[in-house]
Amino acid sequence: MFSSRIPVIVYAALIVAFSVLGVLYFFLPDFSLDLLAELIGAVFVLLIIDNLMVRSRAKKWHAVDEEMKYLASRLIFRLRDGVAWRVFDFRPALQEGFDQKENMEILREKRHRFLLALENLSDKDFEKSLSTFFENLDNPEFSASQYEYFFERAKEVWDLMDMKYSDFIDAAPAEQLLKLYIHLKDLCAAIRIFERGRGEVEGRAFYEESSSDSITFNLQGAVKSMNRLKELGYSEPPKVDECLEN
User: Fold this and answer.
1) Residue 9 CA to chain centroid, in angstroms?
2) Shared domain check, 69 and 156
3) Alpha-carbon distance 234 to 30, whole Å?
């Protein structure tokens, strides 16, 4: 992450200077050698300064780097659990005789396999897996609860990306977090469209069909992003023992 603090244009200027000295050597060899010595000295100083700056910043912000990854990992961990439970009614049986930590690991592994299996479903089969969820959306209390949940999770993702220290999240997970945010926001909009059709008579079918397509598409995208984040190491439980937030 902290590969260099010297602007690229400085390195480009140095390359051009060395090239010019190479040509000048054929006409003014002594003069060009003197300039070359000065230039090598400047490069040496720049590299030392760059190395010191990189080390200093890396050491100074190491804690921030770790905490930002923890915040993202905790958020994705809870969201994976919430989506699996709320949308797909994922309720695996816990093993008797195992302690809390062992059951947590078993639960996480089952949930990981479950979400991967969902990602590998065809579009048609994925839509079928949402049949119960769509039926429950006819209940105003259920749809309001789902909207509130996904709206809050989208806000948390955005707040994380909008933080002063969001640069400490690497590019690959940052890309997936942004995709996840977009899918969650569009999912909220689709739920609102579904609710709008509830009060319609002639246009009910239109609202339900258009919203169900959007809900399916965005839940598919959210599951894929969460799986990629899990593979990148961004899905860890809280540091202290807490009940799962569903």
Assistant:
1) 31
2) yes
3) 58
Let me know whether 19 and 129 are in one domain: no
CA-closest candidate to residue 187, choices 208, 156, 218: 218
pLDDT score of 219 more than 80: yes
pTM reported for the whole predicted model: 0.73
- Do 41 and 97 share a domain, yes or no? no
Q: Which of 43, 60, 77 is at the close of a domain?
A: 60
pLDDT computed for residue 132 by the predictor: 93
The structural domain count of the chain equals: 2
* pLDDT tens digit sequence for 137-178: 989 999 999 999 999 999 999 999 988 778 778 889 999 999
Structure tokens at 238: 């809280």
Q: What's the rounded Cα separation, in Å, for the pair 179 and 174?
A: 9
Please identify, among 16, 31, 60, the residue that sits at the C-terminal boundary of a domain: 60
State which H helix or E strand residue 183 sits in: helix 171-198
Which residue do the tokens 């809870």 mark? Answer: 78
Tokens found for residue 201: 């008579």
pLDDT digits (tens, 9 = 90+) for 37-55: 666 666 666 666 666 555 5
For residue 47, what are the domain limits? 8-60
Confidence check: pLDDT of 62 > 70: no
Q: Which residue has 């397509």 as its token pair?
A: 213
